[in-house]
Amino acid sequence: MAQQKLLQAKVLVVGAGGLGCPALQYLAAAGVGNIGIVDDDRVSLSNLHRQVLYSTNDVDLPKAAMAAGVLLVLNPTITVNAFPIRLDTSNALELIGNYDVVIDGTDNFASRYLINDACVLLKKPLIYGSIYQFEGQVAVFNIVDENEVASANYRDLFPQQPDNNEVPNCSEAGVIGVLPGIIGTMMANECIKLITGIGSLLVNKLLIYNTLSNQICELDIMPKEETIQLIPANEEAFKATQYSFSCEAEHSFKNVGIKDFLTLMQEEDTIVIDVREIGEKPIITSFEHINIPMSVLKEQGQRIGQKNVLVFCHAGIRSVDAALYLSNGKNKVYNLKGGIVRYNINK
Amino acid sequence: MQVTIITFGQIAELFCGKITLENVHDTDSLQQRLVEQYPALVNIKYAIAVDKKLVSGNVAISETSSIALLPPFSGG
Which residue on chain B is closest to A220 by alpha carbon? Predict the structure, then answer.
């Protein structure tokens, strides 16, 4: 019976990274009949320690397709669809609408709030997981009962989307890969329990696990009446909501790889800025640059008058915000996509 | 009276682990006292749990309450 339920289930996994890989692997192995994988990124060498579906042969290839290939070898009886796209307000409702359960394995707040709101609008259960250094969170959001009453969602926990530069999030590559492995596996566990109707789920609860202390903490979350006001009321309002600040910025700065980054550096009237905080390692000595930490960039950034501005950080997330902030219409701003960690720059 | 505060994520790094505060009777005064000690906290959004329940608004804290401060994080 349970196996039949799994076979009939349709699960959409958004993000095939540190959390998505282990979740996908166990869902496919368990025999979830229809799995969708959304990820617009490519495999990178520095992520292999935690993105365990990929190998060194896959570097630079699209994650969604590579993951789908691995899952179909593991279990050829299931259907796996790869969507090598970025989930946004134009495609999220349609995509999520085709599935029974959504697993959020993304790595940024814009996607997390977008997925949460879409799931609330569509009344879809959402399995949530997130990591920071040695801590992981897991929860099951938005379970709608027979009286149409929904359990807590992400906005009952954190009502407003933080600015990307408010929370440093570039150190994922520095975490031990086991943490997303544990959290991603717990997400798969909740998903399988939800589909088969066994056990008790993390509904109205947030589980926090610390890998250093082995402590597990469970907190109760209650659905709040005011939360619904934070969520777009309908499809139209959802599509008009601005989740990602980098979308509008596509014209104001350019993402470049290390080769172009090093070439651009040679041009006249150019400044290279490390936006990592003081004390972050490694200290870069292999090319000339100045350090303006993200935390003081808004005070000191106005003074930058060069024609070409090149920014970088650890993993290329904070530097996007820096690039956005520094572009003023007169200059050309370039961001080192993936940061120094992607190119193994360690000096 | 003395309350013990458990912290997570970025706030745990800021506080360097568990801290205790004297004479706080509700979550508003708790937040005020914390910002005095850790000004950087002003820039961080976080949820507060009292006795393992997330709370909103001003909530009374007793001597035996356990407090947790939980900032959002989004790594994956």
Answer: B53
- Interface ipTM > 0.90: yes
Of B72, B40, B74, B51, whose CA–CA distance to B4 is shortest? Answer: B51
The rounded distance, in Å, linking the Cα atoms of A16 and A20 is 4
Q: Which of A183, A212, A239 is the last residue of a domain?
A: A239
A232 and A125 in a common domain: yes
Residue A175 to residue A49: CA distance in whole angstroms: 9
Give A108-140 pLDDT, tens digit per residue.
999 999 999 999 999 999 999 999 999 999 999
**Contact between B9 and A107 using a beta-carbon 8 Å cutoff:** no
pLDDT tens, position by position, B20-63: 888 889 999 999 999 988 888 888 889 999 999 999 999 999 98
Count of domains observed in chain B: 1
Q: Mind telling me how many Å the CA of B47 is from chain A's nearest CA? A: 7
Is there a domain that residue B43 lies in?
yes
